[in-house]
Write a structure and sequence with these properties.
The structure is a homodimer of 259-residue chains.
Chain A: H1 3-9, H2 17-26, E1 29-33, E2 39-41, E3 49-55, E4 58-63, E5 69-75, E6 94-97, E7 101-107, H3 108-117, H4 119-145, H5 148-165, E8 169-170, E9 173-175, H6 180-187, H7 191-203, E10 207-210, E11 213-216, H8 219-226, H9 254-257
Antiparallel strand pairs in A: 1-7, 2-6, 3-7, 4-5, 4-6, 8-9, 9-11, 10-11
Helix pairs in contact in A: 3-4, 4-5, 5-7, 5-8, 6-7
Chain B binds a DNA duplex (30 and 30 nucleotides) through helix 7.
DNA sequence: CGATCTGTTGATGCTCATCAAATCCAGTGG
DNA sequence: CCACTGGATTTGATGAGCATCAACAGATCG
């Protein structure tokens, strides 16, 4: 049940058998959601515990006054929904299922217990929060500065990498149980446009996307198109203090570079 | 020196005199940056300590391969630059000054000391990280789902609220030491377009922006235009468990709402 | 089997980027 | 006091990217 969660956190620390057992003992309360489109947590709520995706996908989203909405994160097995609420009074966004899903619940007391008694696990949980924040920043770049094509390519690179980190891939393919409309809600673009971009990626031989399964046919080209640099996912165990692969350069703002 | 920092965190907890003193004693190492446009931390680095803005503004940003860049956060006095690196191997983005600035540095050991011995302060630091994450999500909505006008209006609402929380406002005005080009780099829009939107906001009597000072002339209308709901800044002390002001409704994706 | 959801394609128009040039400043130096 | 300068802002003209609307073809499902 916990496989993806353990697999994911193992990218940060090697668990001892004891720590593994602690986590397994902690996750007892499990709830199954039969349908997609059901809120796991709603905005304004203060959930009783922290929710953990075991099976299926979910998304963070916000409704806008005009009835439209924006998806701010996709949650796959191994991802936590709301570590936030250990401290915050209430959720500032909602989370709902995108497929049939199984979700575990860990009480805030249990979380605090872990923080007090198992600092290594606590650090791993904290690490996963920081990764989530990195993902948010990269999505910001997707929406603000990348073309629709690069943005979608970048998303696919990220999702493959995250799926692999959670042990959910087969070669270069993974389960992507989303409709084009659901992709468009995260991409900040219309479903029609996402459709056309998908078509282009397919025609160029970069991906195939059938039966809720995305296969990346040409990883190198897709990475190039997306300018994908996986550093923000912080998956490498120990890279030392040297600077690998980073892009340096003088800061330039839009005005300057338009000269 | 620490005024803004203490003021900001005071939105989450009431400090005891002792806690106040602990923080003051912690912040010893201070560095001054004479010029704007200087990196405080560069991507790939592993800084020795956590940096804290005392005076002046900075921004998180990422360079893209084509030489363009994207600003992912504005940092004002009281904001911390890199709590991240307490755990992460390296920075996944850069931070640079946008004005002359004074920055304090707290070693990771000091941070860990505080976490061990002053849990209330630790919680406050953690809280501020969660707020940063909330801001990121809201910026995502700005870029993905709001018009240029609403997005800029939303940014101004946020910045006034944050400035006020750090004790940096006078009535409805605050110091906004950014050029239109620097605004555009965060808004994901061209400087020319930002200029036009600013003009419209001014003409409509919503704001005035002169001498690096932004005054909000009609808060109500601006909030309305921006659909600004300050919940994501988590500034209210105790709102209880009830759901105030939240928007509910059936989930709808772009496809559905286009019917 | 119709009903509903998802994907596909075409036509049309708006938002916004881009390029270029004009204007407005705060210095700076004669 | 004025001319000169470099930066930021403003304005106009043109076009690209993408939204929107509409229609249809396959799937999927009760």
């Amino acid at each position: 049940m916990l496989a993806s969660f353990l697999e994911k956190l193992s990218n940060y620390i090697d668990f001892t058998e004891n720590e593994r057992q602690v986590l397994k003992d902690t996750v007892k309360s499990v709830r199954h959601y039969e349908k997609k489109g059901v809120d796991i947590i709603s905005i304004g709520e203060r959930p009783l515990g922290v929710h953990l995706m075991l099976k299926g996908w979910a998304c963070r989203y916000k409704l806008l006054e005009d009835g439209s909405e924006h998806i701010m994160a996709y949650l796959m097995p191994g991802d936590m929904c709301n570590v936030h609420t250990t401290l915050l009074k209430q959720m500032d966004h909602s989370i709902r299922t995108m497929t049939e899903a199984t979700v575990a619940s860990i009480t805030h007391e249990q979380i605090n217990d872990i923080i007090d008694h198992y600092p290594r696990i606590a650090r791993a949980l904290f690490w996963s929060m920081l990764v989530d924040e990195g993902i948010l920043r990269e999505w910001l770049v997707n929406l603000g500065s990348r073309s629709a094509e690069a943005s979608l390519a970048h998303l696919f690179c990220e999702l493959l990498t995250r799926s692999r980190a959670a042990g959910l891939t087969q070669d270069n393919s993974f389960c992507l149980p989303l409709s084009q409309a659901e992709l468009s809600d995260a991409q900040g673009r219309s479903p029609v446009h996402v459709n056309r971009v998908l078509k282009k990626l397919r025609n160029d031989g970069l991906i195939s996307f059938r039966n809720k399964r995305l296969t990346i046919l040409d990883w190198e080209k897709l990475v190039q198109l997306a300018q994908f640099d996986p550093g923000y996912l912080h998956l490498e165990r120990y890279v030392g203090d040297v600077v690998p692969n980073s892009r340096h350069g003088k800061p330039t703002c839009r005005a300057e570079r338009n000269k």
